[in-house]
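Dear colleague,

Thank you for sharing your sequence with our group. We've completed the structure prediction you requested, and as agreed, I am returning the results in plain text so they can be pasted directly into your records. Please verify that the sequence below matches your submission; if there's any discrepancy, let me know and we will rerun it promptly.
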Amino acid sequence: MRFCFALLAALLLPLGSLPARAQGSEAAVKAAFVYNFAKFVEWPPEVLYASGQTLNLCLVGPRDGFLNALTTLDGKVAQGKEIRVRAATLRADTLRGCQMLALAEGELRQLEDILRLAGNTPLLTISENERFAELGGIIALVVSDNRVQFEINVDAAQRVNLRLSSQLLKLARNTRKP
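Please find the predicted structure tokens below.
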């Protein structure tokens, strides 16, 4: 068990706070965070079973640097499933089948609609908007002192039945709890 925690810490610690420029482009660093989130978030078993062999990352908004960087995750493996990246729109039928949803920074105005459409669906929502977690999204990627960090809204994750690794919670800059 100790070995598992040590391995988890070794994988995540470099991502706890990365210099945005020193480790490559800011968007690439954020994509690396999202990839690790896919590894350390637990979806209900029936959700992963229903998704077949894929873990679907849906993108909402115009392709900016962040969303473009996320396309590099297509085909990578997390939790024994191949990540599939696809565009989505604000319709329930396009959000169905998504396990993760990334919003372009300017799409914050649509967050309320997305949360309403998703309802209690176990959907990991991620954005690079600094107010995202505060407004009901689950993970906000933020840049502070030229370092990429993240904030987590624990209440939002619990509401949709997602379990976040305790190690992930320890590395978050801020966590918002019920």
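Summary note from our side: The longest strand covers residues 54-60.

Kind regards,
the structure core
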